[in-house]
Amino acid sequence: MSTRPSPSSPASAPEKVAAGPGRPKDLAKRAAILEAAERMFLKQGGYEGVSMDQIAAEAGVSKLTVYSHFGDKDTLFTEAVERYCEQQMPASVFETAPETPVRARLMEVAEAFFSMISSPEAVAGHRLLCTPQMVEKRLTQRFWKGGPERVQSAFAAMLRRRVETGDLDIEDALVPTAAAQFFSLLKGDLHQRLVFDCDDAGACARMRRAHLDASVDMFLRAYGRR
C-alpha cells in the first residue's frame, strides 16, 4: 500500500512556506546597498574614493552580496544616480494636473528640479562628473541616462499632454527640444554659482525665486498658447 502523503498533507507545506521570506530580504539588502552607495558616492569620497568593500560595510552586507545585485561598481553608481533622481523627482512631479494652470504647473516642476540640482549631493555629483577619471570611464553617459535623460523624457510627455489640452503650442517634433530648453533655462547662471561655491548663500537663495519665475515666463513666451 502506498504511504505517499495526500496533497493536503502537512508534509508538502514546508516547501511553500520556505519560499516566501527570501525575496523581501533580498529587496531590503538591495535598498540598503543603494542607500549606502548614494551617500558615499555623493557625500563622502566620490567615485574613485569609495570602494565596494566600504559600500558593503556601510550597507551591512558582504561584498559578494553587493556584486550579486549590481555586478560592478559602474552599474552600482548608475543605479544610485537613478535612485536619487527618482526620489527627488518622482513620476508624480510630471502628472498633467489639467486643473492646475499651466504656469503654476511649470513652476512646480521648476521648483522640484532646482531643489534637486542645488542640493549638496547633486552639486558634489556635478563636480565629480567633471573630473578626468569620470570621463575616462564613460560614466558621464551612464549618468545622463540614469538622471537627466529620464527627467527630460518624463517632462516631454507632460508637455505633450498640455499641448493636447490646448495650454501649450509646440510642434510634436520639437517637444524633446522644448523639454531640454526648459531645464537649461532653469539651471542658468545660478546653478553655476552653486557649483563654483556661491560666496553668498543668502543672496543665492533670494535669487532663486526670481530666477525660476523668469525662466518659466521665458518658456511660456516661446511656447505658450496665444
From TrEMBL:
Q: Which UniProt keywords apply?
A: DNA-binding, Transcription, Transcription regulation
Q: Which residues bind DNA?
A: 51-70
Q: Which InterPro entries match?
A: Homeodomain-like_sf, HTH-type_TetR-like_transc_reg, HTH_TetR, Tet_transcr_reg_TetR-rel_C_sf, TetR_C_Proteobacteria
**Keyword Oxidoreductase in record:** no
Q: Does the keyword Cell membrane apply?
A: no
Signal peptide annotation: none
UniProt region (Disordered), positions on chain: 1-24
Compositionally biased intervals (Low complexity): 1-14
Under Gene3D superfamilies, the record lists:
Homeodomain-like, Tetracycline Repressor, domain 2
* Matches recorded under SUPFAM superfamilies: Homeodomain-like, Tetracyclin repressor-like, C-terminal domain
Q: Which molecular function GO terms apply here?
A: DNA-binding transcription factor activity; transcription cis-regulatory region binding
Task: Report any Pfam family annotated for this entry.
Answer: TetR_N
All residue ranges annotated as the HTH tetR-type domain in the record: 27-88
Q: Extract the PANTHER family matched here.
A: HTH-TYPE TRANSCRIPTIONAL DUAL REGULATOR CECR, HTH-TYPE TRANSCRIPTIONAL REGULATOR RUTR
This chain's protein is named TetR family transcriptional regulator
Please give the organism.
Luteimonas terrae
Q: What is the lineage of its organism?
A: Bacteria, Pseudomonadati, Pseudomonadota, Gammaproteobacteria, Lysobacterales
